[in-house]
């Protein structure tokens, strides 16, 4: 049997979920070699072309493959004019094909792990099970601090009007979202409100101008009752927030962090500005934003991410789905180190992370639901063989 035939069989078994751990590892090992990248590309195309009931354009495969590895997709794209796909194939098949494509870049971007809906890529050697006193995932909740110092726990608050002050009516909607209504004739423009999420909480707020803000765990948003300051809509963010800004050309929307200022008119963007992260990230999904920091200014275009480090702004093209995955209740990482992953886990599950000995320098990529319990998330990461965990109470001990 020719090597290419054997490879084709292994790949088909992988997609059918019938390959053993040894066969999966063999497939991984084979495609870590640079000279075999063309072979994998050909096999992916062959598998897709075996189906002939309906057809999808390059754009159809792009949605999945580009999320796994953008460079690989553009390599394949040039070789395919029309890709046949069986009508009754589900998204699961596409995810599996994307997972197989990711094998190409394991040697360069690190270890890949997948959620329970996809096939996990694991090392052949088994790993001892994690001793876990399980921890539930985070939930929908926050605390609203009014100007008079009154604190309202939004997780426990009943639906309907939860507060009135200085021309401001605050309502908890049927879906749990916070909604503001302002009587501009009597509202005190200097009245400050702060919406804050603890570790293990996330929340949404509809601001007085109609803008929608999602807050990630351990974050806060501060704003005046009327939202206006010197003719501009102004909020201050600590932590991470996703913004859908209502259009108002007469009143630019300003987001201030401890390191920079972001000015927009009407747009969708994400800001990651945790104090314990060295880099602050701003990712633009649509519209345009202007970033200013330490006397420097940059304009961001859709599909770009700005990284602010030591007062300098660097802009790169990015996969925006990665930046807003948390809003869709997923952990999605691409070539991230163990510290970044554990910070995400620590904030969402409200646990402390302690490292024992030397940290792994491996990088990880993959997707896990934020609805999963802590034990499942850790088991998936540990299955790569590149990290080990021990959980005691609300403390995770991490070792190689």
Automatic annotation (TrEMBL):
All residue ranges annotated as the FecR protein domain in the record: 194-290
GO function terms (MF aspect): sigma factor antagonist activity
Signal peptide residue numbers: none
Keywords (A to Z) from UniProt: Membrane, Transmembrane, Transmembrane helix
TM region(s), chain numbering: 93-114
InterPro entries: FecR, FecR_C, Ferrdict_sens_TM
Superkingdom of origin: Bacteria
Matching PANTHER family: PERIPLASMIC SIGNAL SENSOR AND SIGMA FACTOR ACTIVATOR FECR-RELATED, PROTEIN FECR
UniProt name for this protein: FecR family protein
């Amino acid at each position: 049997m020719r090597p290419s035939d054997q490879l084709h069989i292994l790949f088909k078994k992988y997609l059918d979920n019938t390959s053993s751990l040894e066969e999966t590892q063999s497939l991984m090992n084979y495609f870590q070699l640079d000279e075999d990248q063309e072979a994998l590309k050909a096999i992916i195309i062959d598998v897709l072309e075996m189906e002939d009931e309906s057809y999808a354009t390059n754009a159809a495969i792009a949605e999945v493959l580009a999320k796994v590895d953008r460079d690989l997709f553009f390599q394949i794209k040039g070789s395919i004019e029309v890709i046949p796909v069986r009508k009754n194939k589900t998204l699961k098949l596409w995810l599996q094909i994307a997972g197989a494509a990711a094998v190409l870049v394991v040697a360069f971007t690190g270890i890949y792990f997948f959620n329970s809906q996809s096939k996990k890529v694991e090392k052949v050697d088994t790993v001892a099970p994690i001793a876990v006193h399980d921890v539930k995932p985070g939930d929908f909740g926050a605390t609203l601090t009014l100007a008079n110092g009154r604190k309202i726990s939004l997780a426990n608050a009943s639906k309907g009007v939860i507060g009135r002050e200085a021309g401001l009516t605050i309502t908890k909607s049927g879906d749990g979202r916070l909604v503001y209504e302002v009587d501009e004739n009597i509202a005190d423009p200097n009245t400050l409100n702060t919406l804050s999420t603890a570790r293990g909480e996330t929340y949404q707020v509809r601001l007085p101008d109609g803008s929608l803000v999602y807050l990630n765990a351990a974050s806060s948003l501060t704003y005046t009752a009327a939202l206006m300051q010197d003719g501009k809509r102004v909020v201050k963010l600590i932590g991470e927030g996703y913004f859908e800004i209502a259009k108002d050309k007469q009143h630019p929307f300003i987001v201030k962090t401890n390191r920079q200022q972001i000015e927009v008119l009407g747009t969708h963007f994400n800001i990651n500005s945790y104090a314990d992260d060295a880099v602050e990230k701003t990712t633009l999904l649509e519209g345009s934003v202007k970033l200013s920091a330490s006397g420097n200014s940059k304009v961001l275009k859709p599909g770009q991410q700005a990284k602010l480090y030591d007062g300098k702004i660097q802009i790169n093209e990015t996969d925006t789905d990665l930046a807003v995955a948390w809003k869709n209740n997923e952990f999605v990482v691409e070539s991230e180190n163990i510290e970044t992953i554990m910070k995400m886990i620590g904030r969402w599950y409200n646990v402390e992370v302690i490292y024992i000995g030397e940290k792994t320098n491996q990088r990880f990529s993959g997707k896990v639901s934020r609805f999963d319990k802590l034990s499942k998330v850790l088991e998936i990461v540990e299955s790569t063989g590149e990290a080990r965990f021990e959980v005691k109470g609300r403390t995770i001990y991490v070792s190689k």
